[in-house]
Every structure is written in structure tokens, then in C-alpha cells.
Amino acid sequence: MPRTLLEEVTQNLREKVLSGTYEPGLKLREVALAEDLNASRTVIRLALGAIAQEGLVEGQPNRGFSVRAFTIDEVADAIEVRGNLEGMGARLAAERGLSDAHAAILRDILARMDALMLNGFSALASRTEWIELNSDLHDTIIAASGSSTLKPLIEHLSRIPLVSSRALVFDTIDTDRSIRQIRASHDDHHAVVEAILSRQGTRAECIMREHALRSCRNKRGSFEAMQTSHLQPEIPGIALVRVPSAKYNASRQVTKARGSSRFSV
Fold first, then answer.
1. At a CB cut-off of 8 Å and minimum separation 6, what does 4 contact?
2. Are 161 and 18 in contact (CB under 8 A)?
3. pTM value?
């Protein structure tokens, strides 16, 4: 189904914010945006309202909108909340029992991810496929929960930078570390699907929540290097995330001077 003009403009505006084209703190003026995005001020105003609801921009009375900055702590909090919601979804899926269709989908996803683990992630196509499969696995568990409430809540949280199940980053220099993290995460995938298939709701919930906490730890540990990577624009939303400390800023300048470029998606 073709997107409406408003949907098209909203998506373009969202992408410019997430890519850092419009930097954190930038005041978004309707006239300039209308020219940049080739749309009327009315459409721009509606698009700004839409991404304001997503939390990507902030509005103030009589002052318009500005691009929001996020702290790594806010990102971590949102990932943990997402994990709690997905944990509930895993528990409900286990208690309800998987349909044959959902069970087959999850088994197929795991098998395809197993094959990718064996072949490694040096190729961009492999990394892209892993991201797609990871997202599909999380989405399938929520669909299997039977809850109509969880999906929109998780989708809303996932618009925050680095929070989505698609927000995965691969270290292309320290590949051993990256593979260890991916393997541990994939072990969680197998464990949670096994728990759901076995109708062990509490166990499935705990595994999924710990899975999210693992993501928090990994992203905290890798955040500084992600910020200084030449591939920063390819990590959606990373340009909006900040660590407000003098130590961090000094370290960032040093790493930039060395030309660090270790991460890929």
C-alpha cells in the first residue's frame, strides 16, 4: 500500500534526525524543513508532531521543536523496559502454548541463525541477515503471546536510539569479542524458545529479561567506540546519544585523531 505524503515526509524527517543530519539541540524551523523536505508547512507541522510522540524531538510552547539528545542511561533504561515487556510476552506465549505455525517459524529462524554463526559475520550480507532474523525472532515471540497491548508498547520503545531488536552492532576489528557476545546472545535465543516450547513460562520470562540486560551491558561497553566510528551514520540513532562527561569528550577527541573505525552493521 503506497504511503501518504504525510507518512513519506514523516519518515524522511525521522531518518534525518536519526542519522544526525539534524543534530541534537538543533531548532527545527518549519520554513527550512518545508524547503528541505519539499512539503508544505502544514505537513511539516504534522510530521514534527508525529516524531515528537516518538520522543525524537521536543516541543516547547511558542518555541517550536528541537532535536532531542539521549543519554546512554536513558537508552539502557529503555532496553531494560523492553526486556520486561518481551519477558512478559515470552511467558504468555509459553503459558498459552505455541501454535504449530509459530513453533515452525521459531525453529526455522534458529536454524538459519545457527548457520550464520558457523560462517561468521565478515560479509555485510551475513550481518544484515542476522539483524533481520533477530528481529523476526523477537517479533514472533510477541505475536505468539496473543497480547494486542505488548506490540505497540515495544514498537514505541524501539524508536529510541539503540533500543530496537534491530539495533545490533558488530565489531569488525575485535572479532573474537564480537563473536563471544553474539554467541552468548544466541544461546539466549535457543534457551527462551526451548522454555516456551516446554511451557515453562517463568523460565522463559527470566531468560528474555536477562537477554535484554546483556544487550545493555554490551552497548554500554561498546558505546564510546561506536560514537567514534566512521560508520556512526550507519548505526541508526547513535548520533543522538550522549555521555555528558568531560572524560568522555576528551577521549572521543583522542580517538578521532587516531582515526578509529572498528564497528559495522
1. none
2. yes
3. 0.81
151 grid coordinates: 506490540
Calculate the CA dihedral of residues 110, 114, 115, 119 and round it to 10 degrees: 150
d(CA 95, CA 145): 9
pLDDT tens per residue across span 141-155: 999 999 999 999 999
The set of cell numbers assigned to 156 is 514505541
Distance CA 227, CA 241 (A): 8
CATH of domain 5-68: 1.10.10.10
Q: Which CATH superfamily is domain 71-264 in?
A: GntR ligand-binding domain-like (1.20.120.530)
Please name the amino acid found at residue 115: A
Task: Give 30-46 pLDDT, tens digit per residue.
Answer: 999 999 999 999 999 99
Angle (deg, nearest 10), helices 150-157 and 124-145: 150
Give the whole-angstrom CA distance, residue 70 versus residue 17: 12
Closest CA to 166 of 119, 106, 215, 229: 215
Q: Are 157 and 85 in contact (CB under 8 A)?
A: yes
Q: Which residues of 84-117 are buried (b: 16+ CB within 10 A; e: fewer)?
A: ebbbbbbbbbbbbebeeebbebbeebbebbeebe
